């Protein structure tokens, strides 16, 4: 959700590598893994890179207005709006604020209705985790073992694995069909162009 904020964002080293504890920077004696080792492990870094690119793109293209809608206790919709072109980018994110709310399929959630025409699915992120135990290392700080993230970008409306999107003349509807905890879908909407009859 932070990628949709209209301000600077960032995270501390270890978060994107799924280190399951708070790193004490004063007393910790182990080193972080090298970036080559990180690339070979199960992390959320590919998803973070895609979200960071989206964050920069929104800022560069004047999406300065932001609206937030909590759809369920754990699914949140965040809309960024361009006040000049009236284009919108909407993110639906399954956050799982409560660890007991983790779901591997899709909870009951009302369809998201939108005004405008779907331009594209900017981004889909699907996160899954199989508990393979903690990786232990005496000399390196390592994250959880068993995480998998799949990132899909710039899709057509019918290519989504997470949602069914129906487009009508001036509006549309997004129905989540498979949306496990950690999932994200981002859509871009453009304003309907009115045709003059002159």
From TrEMBL:
GO terms of molecular function: 4-alpha-glucanotransferase activity; amylo-alpha-1,6-glucosidase activity
Pfam family, one: hGDE_central
UniProt cross-references to InterPro entries, sorted A to Z: AGL/Gdb1, AGL_central
GO process terms (BP): glycogen catabolic process
Residue ranges annotated for the Glycogen debranching enzyme central domain, each copy included: 44-188
Protein name: HGDE_central domain-containing protein
Species of provenance: Brugia timori
């Amino acid at each position: 959700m932070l990628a949709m904020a209209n301000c600077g964002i960032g995270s501390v080293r270890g978060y994107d590598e799924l280190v399951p504890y708070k790193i004490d920077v004063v007393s910790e004696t182990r080193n972080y893994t090298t970036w080559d080792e990180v690339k070979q492990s199960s992390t959320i870094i590919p998803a973070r890179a895609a979200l960071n690119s989206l964050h920069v793109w929104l800022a560069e293209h004047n999406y300065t207005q932001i609206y937030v809608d909590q759809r369920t206790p754990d699914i949140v919709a965040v809309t960024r709006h361009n006040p000049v072109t009236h284009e919108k980018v909407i993110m639906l994110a399954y956050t799982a604020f409560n660890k007991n709310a983790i779901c591997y399929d899709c909870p009951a959630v009302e369809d998201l209705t939108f005004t405008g025409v779907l331009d594209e699915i900017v981004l889909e992120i699907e996160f899954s985790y199989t508990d393979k135990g903690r990786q232990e290392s005496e000399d390196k700080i390592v994250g959880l073992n068993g995480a998998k993230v799949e990132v899909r970008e710039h899709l057509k409306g019918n290519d989504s694995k997470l949602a069914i999107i129906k487009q009508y003349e001036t509006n549309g509807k997004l129905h989540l069909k498979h949306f496990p905890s950690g999932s994200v879908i981002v859509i871009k909407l453009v304003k309907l162009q009115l045709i003059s009859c002159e």
